[in-house]
Amino acid sequence: MSHALGTLLAGLVDYAGLFPPASLPMREAVRNYGRYRVSAHQGMLARFVLPVARLGEFAEVAPLARHAGDVGPWPLAVLAAVADAPALEAFEAAQGPVARADSIEAKAEDAATIAALAAAFPTRTVYVELPVRSDPAALIAECGARGLRAKIRTGGVTPEAFPRPDDVLRFLAACVAQDVPFKATAGLHHPLRGEYPLTYAPDAERGTMYGFLNVFLAALLLREGHAASMVAPVLEERDASSIQVSADGVTWRGHAVPTARIAEARAAFAGSFGSCSFEEPVEDLISLSLLPSA
Prior knowledge:
Elements: H1 3-9, E1 13-15, H2 26-36, E2 45-51, H3 55-61, E3 74-79, H4 85-95, E4 99-107, H5 111-120, E5 126-129, H6 137-145, E6 149-153, H7 165-178, E7 182-185, E8 194-197, E9 206-209, H8 212-223, H9 228-231, E10 243-245, E11 249-252, E12 255-258, H10 259-268, E13 270-275, H11 279-287
Parallel strand pairs: 1-2, 1-13, 2-3, 3-4, 4-5, 5-6, 6-7, 7-13
Antiparallel strand pairs: 8-9, 10-11, 11-12
Helix pairs in contact: 1-10, 6-7, 7-8
């Protein structure tokens, strides 16, 4: 794997096996996460995603899922609301070295809720899921002013759950303009845009899904100063041969992002994406010869 691609993929996937369409039991999801943390592709793995209401359940099974060589507390992305701050503090006080809430994720549709989240979690990294079917620029600016980050839902288990490409582009461009870090969630199991089953049911409906490379390359190119009109086709790119990777950087149809700029953007701007599967993104990258097989 090229240095540039490794930089782009490092810690890119927050594992959300508890959530649809996987909807795994806690014990199975935790065991999966423990296994992924010592796998050949552990470098792509970031946090374990769970709702605050299931922290107790997690605490019961997590110590049993740790493999030899897995050191340090497990980083968690905890879905919470303003009222959940005391429960989160109590959980961490009881956990010690087992796990820590690396980030908080919450929803907001107005500036007042964003302000309340900032007050409830003053020392936390907070990602605020915002509605994107109308212009989110003002809410993204409010997140930035409060020291919070933005989150976009990029799909779901029905075709209607996927925002339009223009909506995704507008969200990313606003994050760039306001210098507000972001993450994405849902519908990004695959590297490139295409038609895929929306669930794991044998007769699952198929729909057009975004690829995580589409979304994050679009964000990087916007941050490099490319016009939105030029970047828009990146979100709908389906041809893997349009993307070249090397030690020097990643290039889409002649437009390059140097490795150093990828590293800077990943550290300060383009966060991660939540996926109920860790294996699908890895396997698809292997099939595209972008990752070596284990």
